[in-house]
Design brief:
The protein has 15 helices and eight strands. With 426 residues, the chain is of the alpha/beta class. Bound molecules: zinc ion.
Length: 426
Amino acid sequence: MTNLETAFTIDASSIKHGPGVTREVGYEMRRLGAHRVMVVTDPRLSDSEPVRVALKSLRDESIDAVLFDEVSVEPTDVSLKEAIRFATEGAFDGYVAVGGGSSMDTAKAANLYATYPAELLAYVNAPIGEGRLVPGPLKPLIAVPTTIGTGSETTGTAVFDYLAMRAKTGISHRALRPVMGLVDPDNTRGIPRMVAACSGLDVLCHGLESYTALPFHRRLAPDSPATRPSYQGSNPISDVWATRSVEMVAQYITRAVQDPDDDEARGQMLLAATFAGVGFGNAGCHLPHGMSYPVSGMVRDYVVDGYPADHPLVPHGMSVVLNAPAVFRFTAPTNPERHLHAARLMGADLSGSGPEDAGDILADTIIKLIREIDIPNGLSAVGYTDADVNDLVNGALPQERVMKLSPRPVGEAELRQLYLDSMTLW
Ligand SMILES: [Zn+2]
């Protein structure tokens, strides 16, 4: 008899939310006992208000705060190694990340490898890495997000591009989770339109995927409590956070994209990102995320307004949401009620519809939203053709950690079809 999982856990960072809370980072770091802190950010933010405020707050508490501003916008194994070297030489007893997912994820990796030195692939998720367990607690990390979106301040995951394989992979362990997220709407003022759109859609998918992921009790039980994954599948507590985040994104994303000065909309989107982070940080994402990694990783010449112009990229949230309509049509038969409920939370009119319509209704609701905020029409609009499908499939297959949370099993043939169906959405 196969032994199925019977337990689930909910882990979350402490969250402090509100305009101006960045000023409290010094107080919090002092409370956590740190004396020498690495402040991790990217070059575009090094002279920004959030970084200035964070450094001043730390120094006002007599904490030795050292700025590392070389985070790469989509981190790679090479950029992580640079941060790890800096962290190792700096002998820090605390970390502060100020920025988007890239800065937070880089800080998590720097903290891990400076605390428990190892080859980079040691802690990286199998099969790309060895998937070694983190040996113990890390130094305290406080995350100060400056984008609406990743929810990385609440999760134990760090994602990066492994250049040798041109694949996105990551490190995932609850020890990586920041002890606290300082979620400050002031830090997202004036964010470019497409950045708000893509990061908001990432939040939407975090919520939708957590809610529709394989239920935790259909996963195999772990050999020991130590190996229970942080991505456990949908469960009653993550459902609460995930569904609420879907509702909030649907309500506020268009306003946040169209008016960068709409403080209420941005504040609510930021809160939605945190909610979704608690959801997916414990449930996990599935196919839209798993399929997105090669879409971002294999980009040729696509560039987007509002992102650094020096290298082509398909922003994370965009590469995720372009796969979402095809995926939810495919997964809806596993649980039509959940797919319908998700569409309802996004404002769809369900009158006269039955379980057999669930996939189409959710897919169409997502498409309607992404058209409203000028997301390109499918993978073909960001530079892919049917001739790329083999490579895309081969890039998605190793994303085992998320692929196995699909509520409906996928192999090569299914993935191939899902990519083909994602080429053009309307
Ligand atoms: Zn994401």
